[in-house]
Structure prediction request, 454 residues.
Amino acid sequence: MSYRRRSKDELAARVARDIPEGAVVNLGIGQPTRVANHIPADREVLLHSENGILGMGPAPAAGLEDYDLVNAGKQPVTLLPGGSYFHHTDSFAMMRGGHLDICVLGAYQVSTGGDLANWHTGEQGAIPAVGGAMDLAVGARETWVMMDLLTKQGQSKVVAACSYPLTGVACVKRIYTDHCTLACGPQGLMLLDLVTGLSHAELEQLIGLPIAS
Amino acid sequence: MIDKIAASVAEAVAGIPDGATVMIGGFGTAGIPNELIAGLIEQGATGLTVVNNNAGNGEQGLAALLKAGRVRKIICSFPRQADSHVFDALYRSGQIELELVPQGNLSERIRAAGAGIGAFYTPTGYGTDLAKNPDGSSKETREIDGRHYVLEYPIHGDVALIKAERGDRWGNLTYRKTARNFGPSMAMACRRTIASVHELVPLGGLDPEAVVTPALFVSRIVEVPRQPVQAGGFIQEVAKR
Prediction:
């Protein structure tokens, strides 16, 4: 196999490419936050933040931070003209009520059927924390995952059944990884694209599961 | 004359009993009622159940309340953070009980208490470990129009400590940016709501179209100075005035 994996920015750009004009999008904390940097300037997308922002803008310049204006990751952000603030219960009603078009989340594991595990490793002594992950996973019209395909030990994070505790059942529609883009759901995995130099058969070998084309 | 204004934080938080369920607003650096939490520590109530999104950061605010040994149980969505060492130590040594709730369920359970709802079915958490009761039994579920839901009950509070931006002697409140977060729902859910504001204005001084928390949800209101760098502070606009 001779291929180069997508860098974090290439992966973020790949996700951004699929976000259509006019979409209302929630980007989860961690890697998904990076997607905002790759949405083309001529494409108008409304970013939602769970703590009460619609129309969230980029991070402020150094020295202009306003600590009353932070994102879900608790970092200072800005508000675009036209943006609005609302309280938490309304913000989660936007999710649960199906008013968000897309949310992009990180993951420990995703199953072929779209089960998501991203909140807890279940390790002894680990302190669990869930935040808004479960609400986002089941609330948005489309839940997309972006993650490295393989763990540091080389095991596939796309699995037949999640071994980590679930965040949501059958909620993920697409999986964007450093190797490939996959659709998942009741019909199993389907290949949408893969990096140059990697073959379909080689990808199936890495994941250990059949992938329809 | 209705006058909910307390002359000091100590006066505002007086009488909070031991064993009370105390809701505390705030998310990240925004909307944490630090002065009221400091007042609660000073006031001395103990054996508290605290409802907050997190479980304290660093050594200040909620973390200081935990460190003082006043909290028996915490109901929150995201206790584990880089600087949540006070909570982590208490939890690992079994000195604090944790009820972990998905953030939207937390917020909706608070709202439900304030809105007189007996319980509600939510899709969030269905099929996960958080659809279980503390004793390990499963929460009630129901399939409605082909979708699966979990039955969740309201969280009622004795006292809410929230941070707003402006208020008047009736208790009307406006907020600033994302400092609004849990404030409006917590104000509804508690028998007694204590709000700190950065500015008290005369009646009529708030645009009625812009009032977010109407007066009847607020019991006491106290003015505290802006803290330019910490939670609730803001640098630019203070400087411009």
About this structure: The longest helix of chain A spans residues 8-17. The interface with chain B takes residues 49-53, 63-70, 74, 79, 85-89, 91-93, 95-96, 120, 125, 127-135, 138-139, 165-169 of chain A (CB under 8 Å).
